[in-house]
Amino acid sequence: MCDLRRPAAGGMMDLAYVCEWEKWSKSTHCPSVPLACAWSCRNLIAFTMDLRSDDQDLTRMIHILDTEHPWDLHSIPSEHHEAITCLEWDQSGSRLLSADADGQIKCWSMADHLANSWESSVGSLVEGDPIVALSWLHNGVKLALAFHDGSVHIVHRLSLQTMAVFYSSAAPRPVDEPAMKRPRTAGPAVHLKAMQLSWTSLALVGIDSHGKLSVLRLSPSMGHPLEVGLALRHLLFLLEYCMVTGYDWWDILLHVQPSMVQSLVEKLHEEYTRQTAALQQVLSTRILAMKASLCKLSPCTVTRVCDYHTKLFLIAISSTLKSLLRPHFLNTPDKSPGDRLTEICTKITDVDIDKVMINLKTEEFVL
């Protein structure tokens, strides 16, 4: 079960959605101890959950979900014999490290680039030594802290000053209230036991002590009012950053209001056309995918989504056919067969294929 919520305007930190898996029996599925989760630059979330058999034996499971489709959960039997203590994605978001309390480390990678197919071909063992932390050395600007009272605090990494607070299970308290005056709960509260920020620091995932997954939106301005133009420039910069780096941009879309879509698409296209021809060729499919995902957010632009997806499909067909063509002489300095065909089709509008083929070296187009 997934409860999705629309973005709230102007909030510092609010709940985007909550996932609870009703098919999981509480008697067989239980949050692992310790609990670990990790968020990749492709906006895939990995977290741990133990599967208990009738004999009370535990199978250490790693679950992976796409934040855009959180109801599609993929589960991996990790083959770790002890509790998994750490999960960490690499810079590309295609490999995942897992480590356990017995010193075993596994490196998981996508099989055939599919998010629902994973394999572990590399591993290491430091026998008897529990792994308490590991990292691929990527950096962030914000730090997230979770407390036993159910609150989540975002602090600046340099000053450690609180930037935002979210209360999940209790009434909000003033940030400056002394800790000694806060009443202690009689029993253990439901609180987040593992957290991870997205790679743009605009969203945060947490797994609580009951195994429920929550995704929080983090305001780019951390509650400071931004005029519309400045907010658009900030979101545009982050979209361009994702386009160039190859990171997924789903967490940025959490903060895009329908009224912003048209302007963002236009400005994104303007920035794209300013680039060199070579860079435009590299980014051509990525900007189409980005425009399509933006246009889904507004009823005024949703009709364009099919156009962008169709163009992506045609580009894929064109690239496949061009890859099959070979020049008659491999060391020829001329343009490739695909480039010559494109140039001729641009000049000749006649639909008669024979008239087009007269201008081509026929042997290059026999597959």
TrEMBL record:
Keywords: Activator, Nucleus, Repeat, Transcription, Transcription regulation, WD repeat. Residues 238-366 form the Mediator of RNA polymerase II transcription subunit 16 central helical bridge domain. Pfam families: Med16_bridge, WD40. PROSITE patterns: WD_REPEATS_2, WD_REPEATS_REGION. GO terms for cellular component: mediator complex; nucleoplasm. WD repeats lie at residues 77-110. The keyword Kinase does not apply. The keyword Transcription applies. Component of the Mediator complex, which is composed of MED1, MED4, MED6, MED7, MED8, MED9, MED10, MED11, MED12, MED13, MED13L, MED14, MED15, MED16, MED17, MED18, MED19, MED20, MED21, MED22, MED23, MED24, MED25, MED26, MED27, MED29, MED30, MED31, CCNC, CDK8 and CDC2L6/CDK11. The MED12, MED13, CCNC and CDK8 subunits form a distinct module termed the CDK8 module. Mediator containing the CDK8 module is less active than Mediator lacking this module in supporting transcriptional activation. Component of the Mediator complex, a coactivator involved in the regulated transcription of nearly all RNA polymerase II-dependent genes. Mediator functions as a bridge to convey information from gene-specific regulatory proteins to the basal RNA polymerase II transcription machinery. Mediator is recruited to promoters by direct interactions with regulatory proteins and serves as a scaffold for the assembly of a functional preinitiation complex with RNA polymerase II and the general transcription factors. This is Mediator of RNA polymerase II transcription subunit 16. The lineage of its organism: Eukaryota, Metazoa, Chordata, Craniata, Vertebrata.
